[in-house]
Amino acid sequence: MSQENVEIVRRVTEAFAAGDLDTVFEWVAPDIEWDFSNAETWFEEPVYRGYDGIMEFFGKWTGEWFDYRFEFEEIIDAGDKVVVVVRDEGRSKGAGIKLERRHAEVWTLLNARVVRIEPFDHKHQALEALGLSE
Questions:
Q1: Most exposed among 35, 52, 90, 117, judged by the fewest C-beta atoms under 10 Å?
Q2: Is the Cβ–Cβ distance between 119 and 85 less than 8 Å?
């Protein structure tokens, strides 16, 4: 099941990057939680819930940047969870500040659907949250 989870995470990300929300929602549970409470450098609401919550987050986040883009640099199979190292970049609309950073996310899957995403500021934090080390 774990390799299948890695492939689901890839599908969701590729579909989102392509703007294919139908495919995203095919693999994401309607009651998904996007929980930012473990990320100190994200200035977002603590938790976004459901499809509307995801759309609210991305509407706010991508609306702040010119040329925002992201890529997965590493995907780590952790059974029913997947750790993803993300590199994202863009330039802020307000001040023109360039964003270039890496962060990690823990994706939790249940019955072949994404049910939770937890961003962390660093890869080691995401791994530690799962009892793993680098």
A1: 52
A2: no
60-94 pLDDT tens trace? 877 788 888 888 899 999 988 999 999 989 898 88
Q: What are the φ and ψ backbone dihedral angles of 93, each rounded to 5 degrees?
A: -70, -35
| pLDDT beyond 90 at 21 | no
Q: Are strands 113-120 and 28-35 parallel, antiparallel or unpaired?
A: parallel
Q: Are 110 and 93 in contact (CB under 8 A)?
A: no
d(CA 12, CA 114): 9
State whether residue 116 is helix, strand or coil: strand
Nearest in space to 16 (alpha carbons), one of 73, 72, 97: 72
Q: To 10 degrees, the CA torsion angle through 95, 84, 107, 4?
A: 140
DSSP, collapsed to helix, strand or coil, labels residue 118 as: strand
Q: For residue 119, what pLDDT is reported?
A: 93
Could you please report the per-residue DSSP string of 44-102? S-SEEEHHHHHHHHHHHHHHTEEEEEEEEEEEEEETTEEEEEEEEEEEETTT-PEEEEE
